[in-house]
Amino acid sequence: MPKIGIVTDNTCDIDPKQLEEMGIGCVSLYVKMKDKFEKAVDIDVDDFYEFLKTSDYIPATSQPTPQDFEEVYKKMLKDYDELISVHLSGKLSGTYNSARIAAKEVDEKRIHIVESYEATWGLGYVVLELKKLIDSGDYSIEELKNFVEHFQEKVNVYFTVGSLNYLAKGGRIGKATAFVGSMLNIKPLLKLENGEILPVKRIRGYNKIIKELTTLAMEEKGRGELKNITVEHTGSLKIGGDLLDEVVKLGVPREKIIFEPMDIIIGMHLGPDSGGIVTTWE
User: Fold this and answer.
1) Among 155, 177, 226, 249, which is least packed, fewest CB within 10 Å?
2) Cross-sheet strand order for the sheet of 36-39
3) pLDDT tens by residue, 223-233
């Protein structure tokens, strides 16, 4: 069996130190602050979300360059025979396309770019599960690619935002444009499906959206056994904590739940006072 490595990007929400310890390559997207580009992995998450809450300026984001990928691929191919490169949904970012360009330049026979259709911990969980399959030594490269391509069928990603302005300005709003201009106290419930942000419904009242979001995120898929769950937020412990409490009320042990701020690239496009739940199922 060939020795197979994994490359992903920072939007997977897995701690960079953990990725390094697992031997997983990581390419960072960029944040543009005024006229300066910085790698997202070099920016403190908590400080950034505090800045976003009070600033009238919305930073821009940028995909990694093909050269960024080439650097990681060349380094990884010194230790691995083949690579599976899995990234933020191609419908949300040009990251996937940059990876494809770089693979052609480096060695497209040994580098397999696979569409995840995911973001945040939806991407993170496919990376972690893929690593387990590779370590088992029981799967061919084609079987591993197939696993990644179909992983989204086992994932729920539901979220709400404080304002749709951030998604609209960033061009990531997709079909959720139908919700722009909602009335006061109407909260949008959104989901990530097939790599695209889609509207679910408008809900009046904060408490109702917390309950509805949690209920939908906990809908069973596959064999109906909950495998992983993350509650995440964009620096708002209020909405994050309320979603967490609601999940625990449904009987999920607190120790099973990852609770943390989401990566700033995704969080920036959602804006302050946003939160969501990612679940994966057997």
Assistant:
1) 249
2) 36-39, 30-33, 60-62
3) 889 999 999 99
How many alpha carbons lie under 13 Å from residue 74 in its C-beta half-sphere?
Answer: 9
If you write DSSP's letter for every residue of the chain in order, what string do you get?
Answer: ---EEEEEEGGG---HHHHHHTT-EEE--EEEETTEEEEGGGS-HHHHHHHHHH-S---EEEPPPHHHHHHHHHHHTTT-SEEEEEES-TTT-SHHHHHHHHHHHH-TTTEEEEE----HHHHHHHHHHHHHHHHHT---HHHHHHHHHHGGGGEEEEEE-S-THHHHHHT--GGGGGGTTPPTTEEEEEEEETTEEEEEEEEESHHHHHHHHHHHHT---TTS-EEEEEEEESS-HHHHHHHHHHHHHTT--GGGEEEEEPPHHHHHHH-SS-EEEEEEE-
Closest CA to 276 of 268, 11, 267, 148: 267
pTM of the model: 0.93
Please state the rounded mean pLDDT for residues 143-159. 97
Structure tokens at 275: 């939160």
